[in-house]
Specification:
binds coenzyme A, globular, 30% strand
Length: 188
Amino acid sequence: MIEGMKVAPRLVIERMRHADIPAVQAIEREVFTSPWPRNAYASELSQNRQAHYLVLRDGEEIIGYGGLWRVGDEAHVTTIGVRARSQGQGLGTALFAALIQRSYELGARWVTLEVRVGNAHAMRLYERFGFRPIGRRRGYYTDNGEDAVIMWSDSIHAPAFKRRFVDILLGIDVMGMGPPPSADYPTG
Ligand SMILES: CC(C)(COP(=O)(O)OP(=O)(O)OC[C@H]1O[C@@H](n2cnc3c(N)ncnc32)[C@H](O)[C@@H]1OP(=O)(O)O)[C@@H](O)C(=O)NCCC(=O)NCCS
């Protein structure tokens, strides 16, 4: 190494491992009002073959995570979180983009998710990727009776979706993101 040269800690997306669960749960307790049950991540990782979970690491430290279920043609984003002091710096965007890349890799056609109606910050993030609200589940969140907004992507293979996605990817400086979606994917 050249003397005096500072190496910035690198951000990297990786698959979630069992050893990551305590750090993920610590973030979850910090940023979610109703964290998942204690064993939820362990069973997601070891027993749910539809489930795919990622972490965002800054050096050794986990600073965000997200996951999805691939159900037929669809990828359902089940969770996404960035620790409080790291929010608003584009990391949620990077994690969400990594989940969409995973959706391409898994052969999904659409991506869907539910978000609290009051969570404007998260909704804006999804809207930047071209997601739109398509419905509501009344009183879906049992802790406070809040409605869930169901958001849906256009086909992730549609040229307009891909163009927007590739533009977002260009602004992300995180290792392990994978390549942009190929132009060979079916369109529409
Ligand atoms: C939702 C969540 C994952 C978003 O993560 P995040 O890291 O804050 O997201 P980003 O930084 O990528 O984008 C969010 C905001 O930061 C801004 N931003 C993005 N890149 C930026 C940068 N380089 N510098 C400064 N601000 C930036 C964006 O404009 C955006 O602002 P806006 O919401 O006012 O439009 C995070 O807020 C979180 O963990 N929330 C709690 C859990 C939660 O609600 N999860 C979603 C459940 S559906």
